[in-house]
Amino acid sequence: MYFYIKSAFSLYERTISAILRNDFTSDFSKHKAYKNYADLFHLYENLKNKQKEEVSKDIVYRSILNTIETGIIILQKQENDWNIFLMNDYFSEHFDVPKVSKWKYLKSQLPSLCTIIEEQDFQEIKTSLEIRVNQQDTQTFVLQTSRSAIYNQDYFVVLLDSIQNVIEKKEKEAWGNLMKVISHELLNSITPIRSLSQNLHELVQQETISSEDLDDMKTSVSTMLRRSDHLQQFVESYRKLAMLPTPKKERTSLKNLIYSCFKIMNPLFQKEEIEVVNAISDSNNWLEIDLKQMEQVFINLLTNCIYALKESEKKQIFISAETKENRTFITIADNGKGIEPEIENKIFLPFFTTRKEGAGIGLTLSKNIIEAHGGYLAYRKNEDDKTTFVICLIVN
């Protein structure tokens, strides 16, 4: 009896001690005979499983962070000092820094980064800085930091993105999308031309050409001519985008600009029975713009509105403007069918169009013109599902 009670108390102490030390290496399942300890053993197993889950999550999170091409450091405050809780592989490899555990060691490796963070007293930062990488030329990085407290633990997250990498990634995406559209358009013309050329080549090899063959030849040549014209127009459209002339700016009132565009577009508005709600007819804003180029922008946008309203019962176009911080924001909206969410990020892509008769350069050309004037053109989808384009221009 004595040894049984001693063994029971010893087992109880070992179980409690293991729980307090977070030591879950023991297996108490073989002690099922101690039925009074069933709840204690059940608690031990639950805590053991939770620890396994936490370890698994930690491994997954670290794996994710190590695959991201952004330098990441997470600091953890202990008393008055900071320790490095996590440094991802990209940061260590890109900046040639060993995975140290102390802030002071990191500071000796990257003083330019650590000095900025210390000067801001480990508070939130968003800025750019230059860092020399692997003893080569300095590179510019975007630095973003955040600080948060979790379960009385103070954490500080540091993110470093190479501006050059971001730009190169965006350029590659833009070129990839552009080449897809260009190759699609070229193949649409070259493939039928090549097929018809082969057919003509076979016909002219015959000793005699029948009237039926002659009709086929005429049809083939006519089709080739149409596709060649389309291809020429496509190249001409590309030339317009690539060789946009510098704006010849002159002082023009916004009211006169709108009036000039409406004068051109009114016959189409009347034909399509479109109501135009113009809220800037009394505006006295003055802009330094190339009038002809800016008219082209408004005509492109208003033409898109007309196309979007084709299937609408009540057709309306809304134009308004507001000025703030020396900038004028001109809004053109319609209550048409809107832009499908899956193509919203493609609408400014050269030669991308959903219209059979469209060339796909209207929005791209408009965006280029606005940017050449020092402004921007943006697409927004309002809560009431209106398709809205906003033109931002500097006020003089």
Provide a short characterization of the protein structure.
By secondary structure, this protein is of the alpha+beta class. The chain has helices at about 1-20, 40-65, 90-95, 105-110, 110-120, 165-205, 210-240, 255-270, 290-310, 360-370, and strands at about 70-80, 80-85, 125-130, 140-150, 155-160, 250-255, 275-280, 285-290, 315-325, 325-335, 375-380, 385-395.
Describe the structure.
- The protein has helices spanning 2-20, 38-67, 89-94, 103-109, 111-119, 163-204, 211-242, 254-271, 291-308, 362-372, and strands spanning 71-78, 81-87, 126-132, 138-150, 153-162, 250-253, 275-278, 286-289, 316-324, 327-334, 376-381, 387-394.
- With 396 residues, the chain is an alpha+beta fold.
- The longest helix has 42 residues, at 163-204.
- The chain is elongated, with a radius of gyration of 34 Å.
Features:
single chain, 396 residues, alpha+beta, Heat Shock Protein 90, 5-stranded antiparallel sheet, 5-stranded mixed sheet, 10 helices
Q: Look at the structure and give the mean pLDDT.
A: 79
Q: Architecture of the largest domain in CATH?
A: 2-Layer Sandwich
CATH class category of the largest domain: Alpha Beta
Helix/strand class: alpha+beta
Q: How does the overall form come out from the CA principal axes?
A: elongated
Number of domains: 3
CATH superfamily of the largest domain: Histidine kinase-like ATPase, C-terminal domain
Question: Which series of helices and strands comes N to C?
Answer: HHEEHHHEEEHHEHEEHEEHEE
Instruction: Work out the strand percent.
Output: 15-25%
In total, the number of strands is: 12
Instruction: Please bin the fraction of helical residues.
Output: 40-55%
How many helical stretches? 10
Radius of gyration: 34 Å
Record the strand order, biggest sheet. Answer: 2-1-5-4-3
End-to-end C-alpha gap: 100 Å
Stretches where pLDDT falls below 50 for ≥5 residues?
Answer: none
CATH fold node name of the largest domain? Heat Shock Protein 90
How is the biggest beta sheet arranged?
A: 5 strands, antiparallel
